[in-house]
Amino acid sequence: MANLTESQANLLRLANQLSQSLMTGDRDPDFSLDLPGLDFDFNLDIGEDASPDTPTPPATTPDTLTEVLLRLRNEQVEITTPFGTVTGTLLVVESDYVVVVEASGAQVLVRIDKIELVSEL
What we know:
Elements (H helix, E strand, L loop, with lengths): L5 H19 L5 E6 L2 E6 L21 H7 L4 E6 L2 E10 L3 E5 L5 E5 L5 E4 L1
């Protein structure tokens, strides 16, 4: 085996670590590695068997939070925010906030960008 320069040995060590990470970690088969002066592109099949007999499900676009909230209008919901939980009837859905009427009759305005979780009750 030829003697490697220190930089070649380091590069080989990093490539080895990378291959080990690919085998044990995230199984995304498309991977790019950009190093100064070098460009490696890998497209690896790491054991995920995509049989031609198995149909691929159609791609679906996940609903936006606003779309989910619009479907839950006039329903009992629990909305979790960094500041606490609001429970009641989702009354209004605007572009940047919602209005929830609690059991006490109090109206609570919640900014959509602060909503962490919405559950229908």
